[in-house]
Specification:
The protein has about 210 residues and is of the alpha+beta class. It has two domains: about 55 residues, no CATH class; about 120 residues, no CATH class. The strands form two sheets. The protein has a five-stranded antiparallel β-sheet with strand order 7-6-5-4-8. It has a four-stranded antiparallel β-sheet with strand order 3-1-2-9. The longest helix has 29 residues. The mean pLDDT is about 90.
Length: about 210
């Protein structure tokens, strides 16, 4: 994945690009030397198998940068303490260790949100849950019993709401989506929009971003 760079030249507005052009797109001045080096814009995407004790999210089909748009279906999973991604779909439970499978994911680091002590029970609870008959192939339903249900069920197995907000009520799909998934995908959407604009038009001036 190509990094997005930001630099300034003749005006306060930042200029975003993949590679520094020979001339400034604003004033057409030479860019052989800049007052300060360009900075890389942090990407919201990570390799899911390298982020332990997290909920990871990716498009069901394709990748975020190439294929994602508002309303696209998402696939979710849970990583264990070693970073293996456990997830559920129409073929049952998967344990993904291949870094290419989840290389462009969003991650919500659950243990970082609560307490390191949660690590002590994380793998045990996850191992117990994936062995339950509830996650066999014949139980799968694309709307009523899917990958997101798997994630929410696990979060309730480790009593996420109790750790995070001292609430005894189980977390719901709606709550987790509103508080964690939507903010992550909204941030990703802004990055994707900028990335695609640079791909299509070349360097983008900050005031044009809206």
């Amino acid at each position: 994945m190509v990094s997005i760079l930001k630099f300034n030249h003749c005006k306060p507005q930042g200029i975003f690009c993949f590679n520094i052009p020979p001339v400034c797109p604003v004033c057409k001045g030479n860019l052989s030397s800049l007052r300060s080096p360009p900075v890389a814009i942090p990407t919201p995407f990570i390799n899911g198998v390298k982020r332990p004790c997290s909920v990871v999210v990716k498009p069901t089909v394709g990748s975020f940068l190439r294929d994602y748009k508002s309303g696209s279906n998402l696939h979710t999973g849970v990583t264990d303490s070693k970073g293996c991604v456990h997830n559920y779909d129409e073929e049952g439970i998967h344990t993904d260790t291949d870094s290419t499978t989840w290389e462009q994911s969003l991650a919500i680091p659950i243990v970082d949100l609560v307490d390191e002590v949660l690590k002590d029970i994380w793998d045990e609870r996850l191992c117990n849950m994936i062995s339950e008959p509830n996650w066999q192939i014949d139980r799968y339903h694309p709307d009523l019993h899917n990958c997101f249900d798997f994630v929410i069920n696990f979060l309730n197995c480790v009593q996420f709401n109790n750790w995070k907000v001292k609430c005894n009520e189980p977390i719901t799909k709606s709550q987790f989506s509103t508080e964690y998934i939507v903010p992550a995908t909204s941030k990703a959407a802004r990055y994707i929009s900028l990335y695609r604009s640079i791909e299509r038009y070349g360097p983008v001036i900050q005031q044009q971003l809206g």
